[in-house]
Every structure is written in C-alpha cells, then in structure tokens.
Specification:
Helix content of chain A: 25-40%
Order of helices and strands of chain A: HHEEHEEHEEHHEEEHEEHE
Strand content of chain A: 15-25%
CATH class of the largest domain in chain A: Alpha Beta
CATH topology of the largest domain in chain A: Trna Endonuclease, Chain: A, domain 1
Number of strands of chain A: 12
CATH architecture of the largest domain in chain A: 3-Layer(aba) Sandwich
Oligomer: homodimer
Number of helices of chain A: 8
C-alpha cells in the first residue's frame, strides 16, 4: 500500500519541499535563538517567534497551544520530540526549575516519566532520522503513526507498534487476538502495521549513549486472506507487498 | 447497543425458540445415544446422526466437517465446547486412544493443550450458562464473540476478551494502545467490548472443581467521545449504556 496523497499535486509539492530540509531549517533557527524548552510533567513546553512556529508546524514537532500571549506562540512537545530536538538535533536546551539539564540528567528525567522511554525514543528517532513524520498513534491503537510528509498533504501510511522481546518492554502483540486486532484495525483505516522490534543487545539504559548499541528489526504485518491467492498468486504478491504475512 | 437482528421477525423467531431449550434437547439426545467425542490435537471430533447434527447446528456447538461418510455427520468442537458438553452438561464422553477420559484426566489434557485453558473455559462456561451463543472471536481480534441467539438470526453483540490480573494469564489490555485498538475495532464492527476479568482467588487449577471458586468481573468498555456530551448529557448516557467508559 503506497502513500495516499490528500489532493492533486500534493506529491509534487512534497517532493519540492523535502522534510529533511524543513527540519534542517528548524534546527538552525532554534540554534540561533538559543531556544529553551521547559520540562513540565510529560511534556516539553516551548515559546517561539512566528518564524519558528511556522517551522515547528511544517516539520510537525509538537502541538501549538492556545495562550493569551500575543507575541509568542507556545508549543507542547512530547517527551520523544523534546529529547530528539535536544539530543539528536542538538538545537534545544531543556530546563527544569530554572536549571538546564545535562544530557545524562535529561535522560534520567525522561526514563522517570516513562519506564519504557528508551524503547519508544529509539523507535521515534529511528523513523525521524529517515525523514518520516512521526506522531502519536493512540487514535489507531498504536504507539505512533508515520507520514511520508506533512499530514496536510498525505495520510499516515504506517501504524507503528514498538515491541521488544526483553522483559518489561511493551506488552503488545504477545497473543494472536492482539495481532488480529491490530492488523484488522490497520486494514480498516488503510494503514500498514509496522512493528519495530527493539533489542538492547544486553546494553542497559544507563546513559543515552546506550541508544547506539540498540538494534531495530522492522516488520510489516498484513492480514492474509486465503481467497486472494486461489487463482493468481503473482497478483497477490504485488497487491500486498508485505515483508511478512500472517 | 442492543441486538442487531438480521431480518424482520427474527426477534420473535428467537423468542419462540429459546436457546436454553435447544441446548436441553441436544443434551438429552446426546445422553440417550451415549455419544463419544475423540480428542484429537486441539479439537474434539464427534460423529452423529442427522437429528443430533441438526441440534448441534441449531445450538452452535462445533463446526460440521466435510467427509466421505454418508450416514454420519462429523463435527469438530473446540476444547472449550468439548469440555462444556462433557463436564458441565454431562452428555459427552471424551475418548483418546480408545480410553474414556475421567474428569480429572480430561482436565489435565485440556490444560496441556492450552496453558490458559482454565481461564478461557471459565469465560466460555460463564456465558454459555447464561444462554449466550459463544464462538471464536479471532476475526475480531478477540477471544470469543457472544450472540443473543443463532448467528443466522442476529449479529454478535459482544467481542469478548478474557483477562486476569494473575501472572501468566492473558496478556491483553495491559497498555493503552491495546485498549484503544480493541475498542476502536469493536466500534467499527458494531460490537461492544466485553472484558471478562477472571480471578482464581488463590485457588489453582489442579482439578476442574476449582472452577467453582473462580470469580468473574464483567466490564464493557466503549470509546468515549468528548463531543457527545457537550450539550445534552442524559442523551449520551442512554446512547452508550456502558458500565465503564474510557
């Protein structure tokens, strides 16, 4: 299943304005302004000028907040988004109680707010690095959804579930009924289920540098309909295009 | 969400021919013929005359099998169905290697074929005792589906997930993404998610008599749409009729 563009010419529009370049502009702009994010509960809050607000919107980081302030626009970032801008792109300093967090401190903070942060962040970062737009997948019963470009131009292509065979990691897709549930729902909303199976390879999560030692196995899972292949096997293969079928 | 009858007059038809009476007839007929089921893999196979085949079909036990035999009709029962007819209704003896299994032997066999059998059987038996027709829910990503009467007359009303807080029991609905996945899928196929939360209350599964000590908490879960209650709260309550909302 390929990308479903939302309108005519949107594919060309996306090609002319690649996500990688928008993110580079955001990175450079945040760096120039020495931007700071406030760690607040399970969010990172960010106050920016109009130009940066536009870049955050275009690159799909965070959600614009409604406030009474006229000059500044506030954004609420998820933990993964905040950490990505701070640790991977190095264009955001994150502050709590007026103290800028070091990398190690920030890592501990994130883990304290979500015990599975290292797995979710690895998945988020993995997709963002490949220039996918990654947003919450909760409305589709997934951890993330991945878009080929901005959600205004294209529907999300993948519902992403983060999985790990290591104890204590995500409890999804352990039983068949769950696998059937996820694949059937994905089929109904024209997405492909992408399972990111993360292995820490024996490395813990003591510091963010451990992330480099983690490996990811990517699997797409689609429903298998026996009727499809009764007559013409080759047709089915091209229709599904899945790496693994159940 | 009430029952969705498949045709006009089907509700009256169901009321005139209650499931409890069909099951009683089946029970009496199987008892008279000293019926035996063959334990084979994860199924119980049953060979019956035309009258009993009709009763099995009408009460929705097992699936009729295609064989070359002309006088006899073979049925394939699930482990839960076989054990229910044998242990709860006492109208089926189950045989393996030409030996009739005692209750205790049969219980051990069932557990060896499915480590979670005690939980699934308790759920199956609980619903069947209330005259629900219970069938596999795998196509809806659930453990069972429950029908008010025969599936020819009515759509299934509940997608049933068997759950337990005890270690080693079903691994479903442990994370929010799974809950969202299940409720969203149920909404899409006009079913209500029924979670049967089973507690062994400290009793193990050493013998089938333990089943009586287990308790079941029934919960229906529906999606909560904030828009629904903006103006008229009473309307929403009657529309949903759910015991618990998320």
């Amino acid at each position: 299943m390929g990308p479903r563009w939302k309108g005519k010419g949107f594919k060309a529009k996306a090609l002319a304005d690649p996500m990688s370049k928008i993110v580079l502009k955001l990175q450079s702009s945040l760096n120039q302004s020495n931007c700071e994010g406030l760690l607040c509960g399970s969010s990172v809050l960010l106050s920016v000028e109009a130009e940066q607000a536009d870049l955050l919107n275009r690159s799909c980081f965070g959600v614009a907040m409604v406030t009474a302030e006229k000059d500044k626009q506030w954004f609420e970032l998820s933990l993964e988004e905040g950490f990505y801008l701070s640790y991977a792109l190095r264009c955001l300093r994150i502050v709590e109680d007026k103290c800028v967090k070091s990398e190690e401190q920030l890592w501990e903070c994130m883990k304290s707010r979500n015990a599975l942060f290292s797995y979710y962040y690895k998945a988020y970062c993995h997709l963002r690095m490949k220039n996918w737009v990654v947003m919450s997948g909760i409305t589709y019963g997934a951890d993330f959804v991945a878009y080929r470009h901005h959600p205004e131009l294209v529907h999300s292509e993948y519902a992403v579930i983060v999985s790990s065979e290591e104890g204590g990691a995500s409890n999804r897709l352990r039983v068949w009924s769950d696998v059937h549930c996820a694949t059937r729902l994905c089929g109904g909303v024209a997405k492909t289920l992408l399972v990111l199976d993360i292995s820490r390879n024996g490395h813990g999560a003591d510091s963010p540098s451990c992330l480099e030692m983690y490996t990811i196995r990517e699997r797409t899972i689609t429903r298998w309909s026996p009727e499809q292949c009764r007559e013409d096997h080759t047709m089915v293969e091209s229709e599904n295009g899945a790496k693994e079928e159940i």
